[in-house]
Amino acid sequence: MIGPYFDGGQALDLFAGSGGLGIEALSRGMDKAVFVDLEYKSIEVIRANLKATGFEQQAEVYKNDAERALKALAKRGASFDLVFLDPPYRLKHGDKLMDMMDSLNLLNTGATIVLEYESSYTYPERPGSFIELRKALYGETAVSIYSFDKEETVRQDAGQGGE
């Protein structure tokens, strides 16, 4: 489902776990990936997996809370073309994290966000500057793919205000 979205650029794997999604992105053509997870064990696994796959030089790994990590990345001037959001299912804040990435200018125009969540939960089709391109259900898991387009959102907001 996410195969068409690997086209060079920078990837962010937030809540990285084993790092599988970010490593897959690197193996399919992304230039660099940043991996973030709060669990020390996950960080060890990510580092081991990067070493095993030979992608250590294309990766940065951080042990941090998601929101803090986003703020730190923004201070460094980072920007991403592809973001994997796979928060624990009990946390229903994928859209808030997307808005935070927008407000911190962490996303390049046309960036793709892959959000994984519990299938019984529903995220909006157009949260903020994002447009849902695809959604798939896999049992208890749902995956939505969003495209980031700040300019389109600004145009739509301007058009609605002047009627």
From TrEMBL:
<protein>
    <submittedName>
        <fullName>Methyltransferase</fullName>
    </submittedName>
</protein>
<dbReference type="GO" id="GO:0031167">
    <property type="term" value="P:rRNA methylation"/>
</dbReference>
<dbReference type="InterPro" id="IPR029063">
    <property type="entry name" value="SAM-dependent_MTases_sf"/>
</dbReference>
<dbReference type="InterPro" id="IPR002052">
    <property type="entry name" value="DNA_methylase_N6_adenine_CS"/>
</dbReference>
<keyword id="KW-0489">Methyltransferase</keyword>
<dbReference type="InterPro" id="IPR004398">
    <property type="entry name" value="RNA_MeTrfase_RsmD"/>
</dbReference>
<dbReference type="GO" id="GO:0008168">
    <property type="term" value="F:methyltransferase activity"/>
</dbReference>
<keyword id="KW-0808">Transferase</keyword>
<dbReference type="GO" id="GO:0003676">
    <property type="term" value="F:nucleic acid binding"/>
</dbReference>
<dbReference type="Pfam" id="PF03602">
    <property type="entry name" value="Cons_hypoth95"/>
</dbReference>
